């Protein structure tokens, strides 16, 4: 297997693209999962910068198709795009390797932090770190959101209108509304590529997602599973979270709060806030907070079960539709529909930035940290981990000075 990974080159017929091996792609996502800060918006922006602009491993159209599929399917955006890129290059094997490589570093970090949390009875120092890191993250993702919007919306006025409406809706409701995504896709389809009749291929692509949306909750809470063991409850709850939260790991936080704190009473409010802080100070997907929660509930086994629960639907929602999606990627109606969904999802992510900003930028020092981070990123090429480290130190000092 190692020889195959090392020597098998993935080729492209597209002019101007470089050859690379599956091992190189896997190592890239291992590195991104280890040092990639900033949440889903920043992570997908890094992929575009590294794989499209600098290394020329995939072209912009491939990247945008992958981004659109990741936005159309439920689950955390960055993990879906990583899995799709792996699938694009080496089918199921590539999707598996890139997905595991991207998720594993942050999973291990979060489990270690969970062990420290249990051993020492709290994370007061983490609150201080998050005070600065959370503000810096806002600056990072504002810049990334701007770049992502320019990349996906281009100069089409309708897409910008959808973006603004979805941004405002998400910021106001603090949730992502599925039917608005579908409506946005239908509107762009009818305006950009009006079909003579409703395209059955388009609806055959979207209908499995709609069917699972309606059927899976009933399956998970069927009487067949009562009484459920704690591990089974953990797995099913986080599987539901992975299957029914759209667009970004940020959007999963309100959903998790309702189940973990209010319904099952697995964590206190303070513990839940600490879990969110852990996700924000570690690289990789924000949704990895589920591993920390799982560890607090049932140790290492709980962390593994929670991570499997949330990421298995994500993996399946990319791998299963991917062959059909590529087959019909040139379809005008499907592309128009996806353009609308992409604009809606980009707006929803921007709205999630506003929601997160309300919690992270709470006073003058945090506003200064966020603005300074954004200014540095706009004018200089400073690696994001360095900015995060600087913000953590500043936050630690300022937080303790406040106290």
Features:
mainly alpha, 17 helices, disordered N terminus, single chain, two-stranded antiparallel ribbon, globular, about 400 residues
List the SSEs and their pairings.
Blueprint: H1 2-7, E1 9-10, E2 20-21, H2 22-35, H3 39-54, H4 60-72, H5 77-120, H6 124-153, H7 157-173, H8 178-192, H9 200-220, H10 230-244, H11 252-263, H12 269-281, H13 289-319, H14 322-327, H15 332-360, H16 364-379, H17 384-402
Antiparallel strand pairs: 1-2
Helix pairs in contact: 2-5, 3-5, 3-6, 4-5, 4-15, 5-13, 6-12, 6-15, 6-16, 6-17, 7-15, 8-15, 9-10, 10-11, 10-13, 12-13, 16-17
Strand order of the largest sheet: 1-2
Distance between the termini: 55 Å
Chain-averaged pLDDT? 80
Strand content: under 5%
Question: How many distinct folded domains?
Answer: 1
Radius of gyration from the alpha-carbon trace, in angstroms: 21 Å
Query: What is the N-to-C order of secondary-structure elements (H for helix, E for strand)?
Result: HEEHHHHHHHHHHHHHHHH
The level of helicity is over 70%
Largest sheet: 2 strands, antiparallel
Question: Which structural category do the helix and sheet elements fall into?
Answer: mainly alpha
> Number of DSSP helices?
17
User: What's the total number of strands?
Assistant: 2
Which stretches are poorly predicted, pLDDT < 50 over at least 5 residues? 1-14, 204-227
Indicate the overall shape.
globular
């Amino acid at each position: 297997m190692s020889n195959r990974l090392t020597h098998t080159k993935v080729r492209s017929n597209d002019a101007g693209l470089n050859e690379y091996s599956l091992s190189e792609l896997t190592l890239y996502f291992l590195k991104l999962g280890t040092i990639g800060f900033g949440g889903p918006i920043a992570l997908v922006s890094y992929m575009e910068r590294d794989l499209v602009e600098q290394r020329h491993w995939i072209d912009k159209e491939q990247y945008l198709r992958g981004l659109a599929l990741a936005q159309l399917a439920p689950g955390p955006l960055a993990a879906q795009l990583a899995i799709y890129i792996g699938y694009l290059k080496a089918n199921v094997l590539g999707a598996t390797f890139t997905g595991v490589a991207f998720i594993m570093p942050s999973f291990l970090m979060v489990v270690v932090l969970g062990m420290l949390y249990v051993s020492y009875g709290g994370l007061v120092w983490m609150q201080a770190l998050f005070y600065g890191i959370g503000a810096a993250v806002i600056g990072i993702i504002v810049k990334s959101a701007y770049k992502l919007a320019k990349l996906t919306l281009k100069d089409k006025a309708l897409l910008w209108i959808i973006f603004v409406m979805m941004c405002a809706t998400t910021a106001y409701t603090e949730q992502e509304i599925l039917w608005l995504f579908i409506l946005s896709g239908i509107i762009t389809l009818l305006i950009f590529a009006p079909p003579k009749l409703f395209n059955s291929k388009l609806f055959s692509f979207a209908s499995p997602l709609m069917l699972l949306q309606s059927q899976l909750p009933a399956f998970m809470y069927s009487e067949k599973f009562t009484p459920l063991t704690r591990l089974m409850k953990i797995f099913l709850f986080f599987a539901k979270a992975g299957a029914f939260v759209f667009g970004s790991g940020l959007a999963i936080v309100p959903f998790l709060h309702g189940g973990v704190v209010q319904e099952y009473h697995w964590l206190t409010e303070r513990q839940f806030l600490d879990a969110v802080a852990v996700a924000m100070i570690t690289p990789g997907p924000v949704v990895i907070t589920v591993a920390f929660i799982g560890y607090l509930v049932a140790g290492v086994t709980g962390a593994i079960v929670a991570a499997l629960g949330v990421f298995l639907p994500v993996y399946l929602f990319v791998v299963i539709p991917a062959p059909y999606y590529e087959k019909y990627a040139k379809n005008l109606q499907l592309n128009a529909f996806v353009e609308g969904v992409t604009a809606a999802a980009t707006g929803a992510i921007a709205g999630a930035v506003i929601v997160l900003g309300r919690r992270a930028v709470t006073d003058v020092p945090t506003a200064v940290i966020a603005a300074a981070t954004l200014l540095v990123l706009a004018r200089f090429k400073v690696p994001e981990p360095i900015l995060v480290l600087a913000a953590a130190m500043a936050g630690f000092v300022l937080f303790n000075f406040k106290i």
